[in-house]
């Protein structure tokens, strides 16, 4: 062992912690009829509890190996996972609380990769699929393995409108404001959303589909004076359509599409030739809640 | 200037080379009617010619600045780019051969990001769009700015079938073969394709749409004994549907979906619970050509 | 405007929220002597306050444009940013609280890209630099623009040891445990850490350098019975070396290096030929705090 | 099987093709002394030959399974791989030509992840390592399994100089040139290089180290009138230092560091506050060869 400068050690203790397995890539295929159904999840499971002995003394006797966690995820996917990923998450967390001597709670997070059926002559094919871009996400956590807090979400929903959007009437900083106002611009954003539920049973799959529809439709139904206002209206639409949802959070970057300066070359540009600027971007985050 | 060991320099010369601008992110919006049309390209332009003076003597007098290349891409997008990205590429390369004293040829490469219309009540919206996953690609090159070689392509088309695929009867290596044979497996691949054209005029947009359809449909119409065979059949389908295409190349990784070993836990697994293994993957590349 | 099904709207309100600019890529060069100094930051600024009017009514009159935020970041980088990124963050947040009518607080997050001097004849060069892999991170937040909570961190520190590590004596799950025990393995992890400070002034640059050193040295000074124990010992080492730090958090994936099964081919493998498995990985998170 | 429109099939044939295994992640650890040595490679192997039967008729009988390729890579890493990755590549390709009935040639490509020893009290540690940013690459190919063409390379070498660089005297396009000239700027590039060898035996490891040094030192030893000229001088330096190398190719993006316009805010900016623009970037590619 290497010699290092002798160090005086101070007294420390373990704070909040968890451990588990991440990036478990799982596909479950339902072959009950010839029209197959598939679900593909990337799963992370984290366990919480009293793991002080392992951390501070190197005593592993109360630790479930993360390799066991992986085996369990695949095993319970066979025995359970009969409906939504959120319900599967509850099964997983409950299992580890039951089997881990020192495990008192935990969480399961997932990203679901979405597949559509391949279209042949206008029909979705029985067993051929093509991957879609947006992703479904979720997190199930529990302090006791019995009651659960569920959050569902969506990622990588990239939407854009070419008109009915502006940015004007904002606060002017004497020194640092240089941007001109406009009532006509291109607006684009890469929506990340997550939402929480009211008490009671929820059909998580059905709710997700409704939210996905609302987020897209809201883009079309108003003049947007700011990304902040559109964020709010998306929240309002979701809460109106989905009584199961208690509140919803958005992260919405403003993917700037800037009119390229063609006047220098004697050319007009009426929002026709745009520079899609990758950075820096305005970034809006916020919850919309029931009043 | 820093002192370094004195070095004896040998005689060198410039070989094949090009320079230009990459990652020019451009959106062109057609606002001629209230039903807007958008196209989003990431463009790279490279110029070839006699650039020895700049390289070997630091004499820039014959170099077009790459910033000028950027301005030109946006400027010509306004004046031209009336049909496909491939035709726009020809306009660009021809322009630089004309304006660059020492530019004799060049190429334009693009990745087109595809957008669908947002659906509202079953109708595509006039000015709201949602990004799709597959990407359209292309490359136009010319040695003289007059005649062009065009290659078109597709990337990130991720397809999967849950049955009608196997892998058996292959060569056994005495020592290193451990994989069992199967006539029932999940097959998935992330298709990259590119194709070349016969002489004559081409409607590049129409051809692309036909290829995109053929690649998906072929997945559904045969039992696949190997990814190699499916690659070949995809090529056959494309060449049959598109007389404009002379040959087509594929890169198709075998995205392995492995049956997780649940027998260890007393559970059956009839290709139901799969591990989606990110690596290592079989990788097939090949051209399919007219006989 | 598109017609959609008429929807009954429910009453909603804005919850916790912030907005600002992200991915502002800034380099500050100190040219005061011929030995230049550079710092490169990717900065995000978020502002908090009463932004209800903008969200719920589309009234922008109290909003600072995010473009103004960008200008301000570059402007204040010139006038301020005399020492660490953390102190620069305080300057930025204080500024926006002062200039934004409705801004009551906010945060600044940064990722610092680290550059070493190019070595020539054993000396670091005056003005030539080469990028390093690990990244320095930080977040400064304030509820009032006057008092600040500072968190500093490190990312992408990828370390590995080829011996003096094991994993044994862990809890056996009757059904799902299949992993054999070992007292000799390869251990590797991609360290993400962040830490908080005690009251009082801090030399953030000096502390970061000490943490960076401790995290690497700790890897070498003990037999590791688990990644959890190494996490704890890293925390102990940092808290011992840096009295300014109150507590430190780690995220440490277990980058599995698995002995490839060569026995099937009649070959021995004494931890010599390893498969570097990208997934799934054990993932440990935890705080180490002063007792 | 799904019914699709009946399609008339045209006659096609297989063109140039290869198949094999990609992203095989391998670490070899030399434990012969207590000072361990490690090498980490990501390997791809492709085989060429007459694979028509598999492609056109679904006859796999002459195909080596890619799973066998993976096993072989790990197996031969144990038995061979005694010196450089390039020599290991030759062993692999020769093996597949020998064992694959229809394999006549092939290639092996690698990316080597580089690790330094962790420093403790100024000494590199015996068995603890920390990952570095630049990557070593290479490709070995053969048409017959006996004679080989070797290309070696480097990737992700990100270098920057804060002075001794300019861009002036370039060709002005009447319409599209807007960039001002300068004799003082920041120059940065993310070097990708690859080189070929003269006949004769080569110590690939030693050559790589020399190239790595030359590329960095050249940055420091001249005023750069253009990235093209620096590319050329890097080539000259490498060819002067390494008689084994016949020619070298570079891809060098111009990572623009633009002086942010602070004049609008009444602030001077003498190349002190820079915007690190991620796109679009000038991109230079070229070979430097022996005259």
From TrEMBL, chains A, B, C, D:
Listed SUPFAM superfamilies: Tetrahydrobiopterin biosynthesis enzymes-like
Residues at the active site: 21 (charge relay system), 66 (charge relay system), 256 (charge relay system)
Enzyme class: oxidoreductase
Keyword S-adenosyl-L-methionine: no
Catalytic activity: urate + O2 + H2O = 5-hydroxyisourate + H2O2
GO biological process, one term: urate catabolic process
GO molecular function: urate oxidase activity
One Pfam assignment: Uricase
Residues that coordinate or bind urate: 66-67, 185, 228, 254
This enzyme's EC code(s): 1.7.3.3
Keyword vocabulary terms for this entry: Membrane, Oxidoreductase, Purine metabolism, Transmembrane
Record-listed 5-hydroxyisourate binding positions: 66-67, 185, 254
Cytoplasm among keywords: no
Pathway named in the protein's UniProt entry: Purine metabolism; urate degradation; (S)-allantoin from urate: step 1/3
Classification via InterPro entries: Uricase
Chain positions recorded as O2 binding sites: 66, 254
Purpose: Catalyzes the oxidation of uric acid to 5-hydroxyisourate, which is further processed to form (S)-allantoin.
Family membership: Belongs to the uricase family.
Name of this protein: Uricase
């Amino acid at each position: 062992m290497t010699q290092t400068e002798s160090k005086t050690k101070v007294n420390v203790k373990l704070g909040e912690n968890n451990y588990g397995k991440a990036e478990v890539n799982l596909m479950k295929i339902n072959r009950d009829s010839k029209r197959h159904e598939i679900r593909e999840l990337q799963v992370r499971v984290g366990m919480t509890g009293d793991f002080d002995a392992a951390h501070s003394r190197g005593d592993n006797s109360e630790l479930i190996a993360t390799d066991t966690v992986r085996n369990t995820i695949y095993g319970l996917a066979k025995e359970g996972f009969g409906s939504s990923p959120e319900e599967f998450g509850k099964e997983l967390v409950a299992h580890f609380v039951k089997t881990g001597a020192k495990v008192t709670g935990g969480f399961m997070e997932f990203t679901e990769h979405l597949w559509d059926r391949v279209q042949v002559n206008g029909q979705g094919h029985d067993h051929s699929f093509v991957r879609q871009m947006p992703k479904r996400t979720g997190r199930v956590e529990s302090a006791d393995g019995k009651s659960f807090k569920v959050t569902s979400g969506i990622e990588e929903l990239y939407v854009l409108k070419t008109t009915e959007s502006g940015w004007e009437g904002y606060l002017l900083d004497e020194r640092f404001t240089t941007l001109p106002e406009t009532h006509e611009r291109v607006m684009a954003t890469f929506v990340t959303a997550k939402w929480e539920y009211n008490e009671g049973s929820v059909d998580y799959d059905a709710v997700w589909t409704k939210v996905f529809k609302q987020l897209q439709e809201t883009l079309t139904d108003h003049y947007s004076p700011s990304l902040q206002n559109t964020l709010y209206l998306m929240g309002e639409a979701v809460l109106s359509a989905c009584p199961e949802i208690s509140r919803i959070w958005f992260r919405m970057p403003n993917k700037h599409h800037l009119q390229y300066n063609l006047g220098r070359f004697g050319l007009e540009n009426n929002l026709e030739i745009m520079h899609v600027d990758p950075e820096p971007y305005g970034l809006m985050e916020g919850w919309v809640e029931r009043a």
